Amino acid sequence: MYNGGSMYIHGGTSVYVSSGVYYFAPAGASTVTARGTGPGVLAFGPGVTTSGASPTHFVDGYAATYGTSAFDLPVGQAGILAPVRVASSASTETRAAYFYTSPSGIGAALSPGINAVSSVEYWHVVGNQPAFVSVSWRNTSDVSSLTGGNLNRLTIVGWDGSSWNEIPSTVDATSFTGGASTLTSGSISSNAAVNLSLYSYFSLGSKNPVCYTLATPSGLTRTWNGSWDGPVPTLSDAVVINAPYSGSLQCNSLVLNADLILSDGEVLDVVYGVTGSGKVVMSGEASLVQRDDSAAAPLIQLTKVTNPMRRLDYVFLSSPVNSMSVYMANLTSPLTTAVNGNFGTYPASAFFSYLTYNAAGNAYVAANATNVPIGKGLSATVASQAPYATSTAPGTWFTEMYPVHIRTTGTTNNGLVPVSVPANGWFFLGNPYPCAISGEKLLDAVGTTMRKTLYYWTHTTPRASWNNSGSNYNNADFATWNYSGGVAACAGCQVPNGKIASMQSVLMRSITPAATTLNLNNCLRELTGNDNFFRHVPSDRYWLNLTGSNGSFCQTLISYSADATLGEDSGYDSLKLGGATTSSLTSLIGTSRYAIQTRPSFEIGDQVPLQVDQPSAETLQISLANHEGVFADGSVVIYLFDSLLGIYHNLSTGGPYTFVQSVTADATRFRIVYQTVLSVPDNELSSKVVSYIKDSALYAQSNESIESIVIFDLTGRKVVEYTNVNAAIFQKPFHHAQGVYVAKIRLSSGVVANRKLMNQ
User: How far apart are CA 535 and CA 570, in angstroms?
Assistant: First the structure.
């Protein structure tokens, strides 16, 4: 049957296609059925197929199948083709229609385990026999916002008359609509036949983040009196500690009549509450995890050790105890905060100048127990006191570095921690728990309210001067992380792994026009990964390093994922923070600079534009730091193309590319490519030379070896001559009068290039 016109099927009637193919003609034709009670139906018999359904022609209303084989009902509405696949257990009618409207009109209640339901669409599926159900999505479905950018949280939901419930289902690796399932399009199928007598309304939903299992109590109690009175406890057993205990432990509930001591890497994993007069004594990289959000939390004593710090360096902190007053008292006391852990040795705390970020005023303000609630962060600055020298000479504050030990004692946080998030502004998000929390789960939880990027402060660059002011700190010292991975802040520095350690806070950016609340809970807590103090990870990725002769370092990450687009994707593309005082390398989306950029699935013809920013003149190098996935075995070569010199440099095997740059910011010279144009016309060689004078130095670079350079002033007088250069890059001091000069540069091929230079 070929429908090339307009067909309308009235309520209570049907058109039955018994065999063959039903063809949907292109634009201009339509197939519409009544949608009310007793709707019209376009029915397809067993063995019938359809062809040509598109966003311009589909069944706008109800379609039905009578077979037991999987059948794609080509339904839609409002210019949207949204097919649903059904496979009934019997050859009786199963019909369906698509509604491009919020399912809240059906009902709003959510069952436990469901975080959200689509606000834009649902399907009505009617049958008297169980059937497998698969639903599709597309750009208009906004699955990315629904799931927080994590397809692992996507599920089919069904309305049972009182609430939306999870229909156990799995995202199809290959969508029944064609192509791989991604955040922008795909399909998901029920794991079993669905009872259509109970469920007839279906939509897409988001599951709550996966939390730890709440093990059922065994009814057994294990007691420690210096040794166990029976087998080692499991997560089902209650435990009583009557004598000091050291080491990892798991249990269902815990009574502490003595202290429990955890060293670095050890874990206390408790399903429910902790009571008693004892406390959990924790080193900085130990972990305490409670699974039940409402369980009683224990008294802890946590000693955190920072990385080595200079005077006036600062660190981002957060309270792991439930009283900010207690935590601030610990931070400001020499008895609990001291360099090298020498508590009580020095006259004051190792820190001073405690600040937090006020988004409304777009400025740092003094932090106190009132304006830094639990779940928020603050910065603390290292004081200038012993054991640091008192000299203000640069050599002293650059080289003296000591770890600061912070000891806090109090009842720890457990379960729900609501965090106020400002409108359109920066803020410190703090880890409130005595264990690491998952950055991936955190980014899932924020939905569309924030940029899905974590910025970790690393205090790696020495201050520009002795004065304690914001301009003396370098924003290049922020390490960056999103779903695609992390980039380090310095050569040899730790690359963030997406975990936020205990007592640590990170910088985040709200993008909503109104203030919101972010609810942290035990689902975020991690049993491991508590040593990073400062989803789906794409496997096709690589890191580029920029290094400079003056000590500059910048790392950028390029990754490829089916979940990404060429535009900005929250959680996959992370902006580079401004304010760096050293040279930086970023990739570009439009004119915006990114520390991390994720592009769609890899194609050999892709090109990635780069930008190099250089606050002061130095010789720079771009190198390949690491590579994974399709780049791992070298079969895909990563080339750096220098359009100024016409050079394709093989970063995969050719080592670093060295260059000089005459401008402060260059967004057009470099790009990454994966295939080359090998020939450069000979008559273009003379233009492939760059030369300039900057910061009392003469620079020159060519795509072939430079033989000699002669500098003339505008009178034609020879100022200086350099012979036997024999290198592609040249740099020498240039201490001559300000003015205009001409460089005559002879290349090894005999080509001579003349360049006009300005010495300012």
Answer: 14
